[in-house]
Amino acid sequence: MKAFLITFWQVLRKPSVHFSLGFLTLGGFIAGIIFWGGFNTALELTNTEEFCISCHEMEDNVYEELKSTIHYTNRSGVRASCPDCHVPHEWTDKIARKMQASKEVWGKAFGTINTREKFLEKRLELAQHEWARLKANDSLECRNCHNFDYMDFTLQGKRAVQFHSTSLASGENTCIDCHKGIAHQLPDMKDVEGWDLN
Amino acid sequence: MKTKIIIAVVFLSFVTGSIIAKDIANLREGAELSEQSKTQVIPKPIVDDKKVTRNYPMQPPIIPHNIRDYQVDLNVNTCLTCHSRQQVGVTQATMVSVTHYMDREGNFLANISPRRYFCTQCHVTQSDTKPPVPNTFIDMNKLIAIKSKKAE
User: Fold this and answer.
1) Neighboring chain B residues of A69 at a CB cutoff of 8 Å
2) Angle in degrees, CA A168, A174, A177, rounded to 5
3) 3-state class of A194 per DSSP?
4) pTM, to two decimals
């Protein structure tokens, strides 16, 4: 193994004998474009709702629940798809999230939530991950569409103004602190602070 | 003879039945079974956040806001995230009545009684729409007033 590494290193160190500098530079450049383009295309492919619901775990549980909510069907027809809320839009954050999501591939392969019962049992944990993520990034994915700067309090309901103008404006709370379970059903909330009321 | 009477009665009841059926108001508004009647507009809930007069003291107060997708089930009661005793200080919502903390023997519990858990069994939103059936309800106080006037 050590001998192999040494020969490999020696080959790498040697200047090219058969290929011209131009070929290597241009070839490297083109290969780079193909690799990078391919990588991003594949990445974007995994960033579609179609891809998400190609697994029955997503299609039969969370996607089905989304369908009746205002983020799926409403008067103006603007809707959020899975990655709009669950994947950051900025590149670095997106890559970080994608790396985390490799855990989900593991889960799929080993059938962690491959039945409704297993899903419901794990739902609180999964939900808590999402709440923690949105709390940590100040509900970034909400704010990609719902921009606080352009909220008109005069058009909001009395109760909405009461909270948006105080704790949301001061940054003390973020969207997800109150708006849990707006696009999917909530898990058993008896151990969740502020929700353990009954 | 007897069978003849029975046949006559059955025949008559069919005839009268079909005549009456035509006059009965139904949700299809007289449209034939084979055709689609006019689609009704789904009324929107009233969301003005205003308390509404109760028609009698025990009437469950109505909900003056939208309750679309409010989850009330084994896992959670989203109504209580504003209306529970612990939350009303923050939310300034109306607290659920004390009767909801009582069991059926009248003992007070620390939390909402399970028999009062499902809010929309009694509390509902209102819509600004023409009722399909006219309502002849008269407020108790008005009834008393009419009666005492008659007595005079």
Assistant:
1) 69
2) 115
3) coil
4) 0.79
- B chain contacts of residue A162, beta-carbon cutoff 8 Å: 91-92
Q: Name which of A70, A162, A187 is nearest B75 (Cβ-Cβ).
A: A187
Q: B100: burial class by Cβ within 10 Å (0-12, 13-18, 19+)?
A: buried
Helix axes A102-110, A91-100, angle to 10 degrees: 30
ipTM exceeding 0.95?
Answer: no
Q: What residues are paired with B102 via a beta bridge?
A: B108
Q: What tens digit of pLDDT does each residue of A123-145 get?
A: 999 999 999 999 999 999 999 99
Q: Which amino acid appears at position B56 of this protein?
A: Y
> CA-CA distance, B29 to A129, in Å (whole number)?
52
* C-alpha torsion sign, points B124, B126, B129, B130: positive
Q: Which of B82, B79, B60 lies closest to B68, judged by CA?
A: B79
Are B47 and A181 inside 8 Å of each other by CB?
Answer: no
pLDDT band (50, 70, 90) for residue A12: confident
Using alpha carbons, select from A183, A186, A142, A163 the residue that is nearest to residue B79: A186
pLDDT tens figures, A81-135: 999 999 988 889 899 999 999 999 999 999 999 999 999 999 999 999 999 999 9
Shortest distance between the Cα of B81 and any Cα of chain A, in A, equals 6
Alpha-carbon distances of A139 from A83, B29, B36, B69, rounded to whole Å: 14, 50, 47, 21
